[in-house]
Write a structure and sequence with these properties.
Blueprint (H helix, E strand, L loop, with lengths): L2 H8 L5 H8 L3 H13 L19 E9 L8 H8 L4 E6 L6 E7 L2 H12 L5 E8 L5 E2 L2 E2 L15
Antiparallel strand pairs: 1-3, 1-4, 2-3, 5-6
Helix pairs in contact: 2-3
Length: 159
Amino acid sequence: MNPVLKLLLEGGSLNTAHMAQVLNLPESDVNREIDNLKQQRVLLGWRPVLNLSEDEGGVRAIIEVRITPERGGGFNRLAGRISRFDEVESCHLISGGYDLLVFVNGTSLQRVAAFVSEKLSTLEGVLSTATHFVLRSYKQSGILMEGRTEETGRLNVAP
């Protein structure tokens, strides 16, 4: 694997000066390699991994979607259309009982439910959906989400 890319993936908050020091390269070489990775569309962007507590008010859902493939385009057109919704964080073509796996963020359970019932399930070609709400994340993007642990080890169900 490309050493600059590997540091980007594993290095967390390393800046290019630190990366150059670790790789024993001039910083200009690291910057040039990052630019090359962007041009090749290998590095599309990055963002921090946030450990938001239940108190933050955001809701994340995973939605399994069964769709009808189109002649000449398969799943691509409808998957692209679903991906363009602001609520959609990511959309993946998957194997198994469903065709797409869609990750959605919302401000409340009701907002996510409204998205599914009013926008997603009404699209022509969407046959069915199954929505799963994320209750707690233990690991995200390769990072363990270590937070407060209650003595009982049970999740809060009601506020």
